[in-house]
Amino acid sequence: MCGVVGIVGCSTVNQSIYDALTVLQHRGQDAAGIVTIDEQNRFRLRKANGLVKDVFQEQHMLRLQGNLGIGHIRYPTAGSSSPSEAQPFYVNSPYGIALAHNGNLTNTEQLRDKVFELARRHINTSSDSEVLLNIFASELDKFPTYPLTADNIFTAINQVHQIIKGAYACVAMIIGHGLVAFRDPFGIRPLVIGKKVIDNQKTEYMVASESVALDILDFEFMRDVEPGEAIYITQDGQLYSKQCANNPQYYPCIFEYVYFARPDSLMNGVSVYQSRILMGQKLGQKIAREWKDIDIDVVIPIPETSCDAALEIARILNKPYRQGFVKNRYVGRTFIMPGQAERKLSVRRKLNANRIEFEGKNVLLVDDSIVRGTTSEKILEMVRSVGAKKVYLASAAPEIRYPNVYGIDMPVASELIAYNRSVEQIATAIGADKLIFQDLSDLIDCIREQNAKIHHLECSVFDGKYITEGIDANYFDALEHHRAENKTIPPNRESENLEIYNEGQY
Ligand SMILES: O=P(O)(O)OC[C@H]1O[C@H](OP(=O)(O)OP(=O)(O)O)[C@H](O)[C@@H]1O
Ligand SMILES: NC(=O)CC[C@H](N)C(=O)O
Ligand SMILES: [Mg+2]
């Protein structure tokens, strides 16, 4: 799950984009990038592997001049984690376009060949986002006039919606025009827009993956970008918007509410925090109903995402809630780290059990989700070693049995701990005395209760139903094959040759 941001400002935007990326860091820890447009209408780019704070040093910030810019933080789902696939991407024709993408396309391979044959465009990486950018560029290229009108841009996006499949929330900039943002016709990935009025005169606009980015920059939340909708803000701050999809429908990703998004974000009219509170309440009620004879002494969250739900479970069960684990604040999110070996090591470095809360007790541990089981396996081992008597585990999300193809890196079912296992078998595999999962209908209600406009949610990891066409056994075989191929390429973290060298001393 990546994070995107775009700002059309009245003054230099580099610091604001940097700040926005730091609060979106929980969506991707692998790479970061910013591109701005300077006064001479040139792109200024910095991107590399690493956290935002490591990627941008003073000399890069000096390079990023201009009042218009976009930024990206990456959690790879396609291609590799090579710095050459860090975003934003750039093409020089037509006009000069830069684009950043959150999501994952599901027909990338077919499109890669088509783009070459029909539009004579060369794709130089294995990134789906580079394909997306070239399709957008080739649609814009069909208009012979300069400058493009808002309608030209919206027509191009309507075509893009018909050509590409999958999930995408994008921000882009076109030289000589301004900022463009669009969201896929199912609204799988999130995107919001906000504004800030400067000196009672001019309006600055900002689009971002999550509303929390608007909050910290004092932008006023306007609304979600609708599924299929496109926004065009000219470089002098004129805003246009249009529904560009032929049959848009709300199918937002349910996993944003379970794990990905920050709790203080408002997404599709739904508070992420409130969703997690409701998840705790519904799961607490299920435990009270189904585990009448189970003797629980204390409820303990597995930090950090599960804390809000765990507190509600404790309240409903009328048991003490304790912070039994200490989290190392310098270790990031383990699930979005690349490679299983690194994830395993990081769980141990990140969490340590406080013996006093476990010794001789029957504990109910709570996690927001159990995906590969990396966290729960390690945690269970740890709490046993500090003397827990019985260890029960509750997951605020249902069993994850199916791969994700829309921007969460879990493309192979066999990597999932719940794949082909019953609840009892999962409990045995991770070493829990008892295990309970949220029901999918309850999880869906946690979100829908807050916005009746959402009739459906994208729940494929739980129910195996994919909303876009062509997701079948052949698709997954090809994906698995690709992934195996990519694993054999040694990671190259060298980012020296990625920048656009147009700025003299920087
Ligand atoms: O079963 P797994 O494959 O281990 O994945 C699930 C775990 O990973 C996530 O935690 P993470 O450390 O990424 O972030 P958090 O601090 O926000 O909870 C999630 O909250 C679960 O704890
Ligand atoms: N998680 C995401 O949104 C990833 C975006 C894009 N598919 C990439 O791999 O760079
Ligand atoms: Mg966690």
Task: Give structural notes.
- This protein is of the alpha+beta class and 506 residues long.
- It has two domains: 3-249, Aminohydrolase, N-terminal nucleophile (Ntn) domain (Glutamine Phosphoribosylpyrophosphate, subunit 1, domain 1), CATH 3.60.20.10; 271-327 and 349-454, Rossmann fold.
- The protein contains 17 helices and 21 strands.
- A seven-stranded antiparallel β-sheet has the order 3-2-4-1-10-9-11.
- A hairpin with a 3-residue loop joins strand 9 (192-198) and strand 10 (202-208).
- The two termini are 31 Å apart.
- It comes from Gilliamella apicola.
- Keywords: Glutamine amidotransferase, Glycosyltransferase, Magnesium, Metal-binding, Purine biosynthesis, Transferase.
- Mg(2+) binds at residues 305, 367-368.
- In the C-terminal section; belongs to the purine/pyrimidine phosphoribosyltransferase family.
What key phrases describe this protein's structure?
506 residues; alpha+beta; Glutamine Phosphoribosylpyrophosphate, subunit 1, domain 1; seven-stranded antiparallel β-sheet; six-stranded antiparallel β-sheet; 17 helices; 21 strands; 23% strand; globular; binds 1-O-pyrophosphono-5-O-phosphono-alpha-D-ribofuranose; binds glutamine; binds magnesium ion
Q: Brief overview, please?
A:
This protein is of the alpha+beta class. It is built from 17 helices and 21 strands.
Provide the β-strand percentage band: 15-25%
Share of residues in helices? 25-40%
* Major sheet: 7 strands, antiparallel
Helix count? 17
Task: Note the gap between the termini.
Answer: 31 Å
> Domains counted in the coordinates: how many?
2
Going by CATH, the architecture of the largest domain would be: 4-Layer Sandwich
Judged by helices, strands and strand pairing, the structural class is alpha+beta
Report the radius of gyration as a whole number of Å.
23 Å
- Distinct small molecules bound, one entry per kind: 1-O-pyrophosphono-5-O-phosphono-alpha-D-ribofuranose, glutamine, magnesium ion
